[in-house]
Amino acid sequence: MRGIFAAGLFLFGALIACGQQLHDSVTLLDGGFAPGGSNFRVTFGFSDLAMAPGSAKNPRELAAPGTASPACEWSSAHGATARLEMCCLKQPMGLDDATLAVARLLLINPTDRPFKTTLAVAVSPQGAIHALAFEKHAFFIDGRAVLVADTPSRGAVLAASPFEPRPLTPQDQAHVESAKGECRGEMLYDLVLMPGQTQTLGFICPVRLPGGKEPDLDFFRGLPVEDLFTTAKKDAAAR
Description:
Strand 2 and strand 3 (40-46) form a beta hairpin. This protein has helices at residues 2-22, 217-221, 225-238, and strands at 25-29, 32-35, 40-46, 50-51, 60-63, 66-75, 81-93, 96-108, 115-125, 131-135, 138-141, 144-149, 155-159, 174-177, 184-193, 198-208. It is α+β, with helices and mostly antiparallel strands and 239 residues long. Helix content is 17%, strand content 48%. The protein has one domain. A nine-stranded antiparallel beta sheet has the order 4-6-7-8-16-12-11-10-14. It contains three helices and 16 strands.
């Protein structure tokens, strides 16, 4: 009996450890990521850039602290490129730590003519999303912030299912619900890069919050994406 009891405790502890690891990591996907233990995924797509062959070796896990640079790359026939970099780290929040996933998109136009493209940052179900909202350039699932942009977008287009007609114009505020859990949405950016110009866009995704705390958007927007990458690299090197 003692052996069975000990084995049960070991299995229980292993499951707890596995769950903690799951919620302190992200799964890197081709063109995006999915936070550990979440019901959604985030993907990035460009109207005038195609994913570079062999640029991603996904899916793979990125645990905190860690970085993936690049996680994925895109290129155009005219020479413009985009690179997705990811990091996952623990960030102090009160007396505890939150686990954050941070995406950084770097666009480069090395050509001698302007480059235009539309970026769609999509949130879609990995499981079920019953309620999705967008406001202040951030996505919310069931009232919880799940993706916060550091650069203002043109707005978002939300839908309650893959086949539902979508608004023709992106909205600054939107909300949809789905009994089947099929909510999804796209945050849109119209980007213009002049010859030789680079542009960086950042996105913060809370993977795990301590004690169920729900900070406001000012907390996330007070965290510079560049600083978060620096911290993730430093913590990973010290691990």
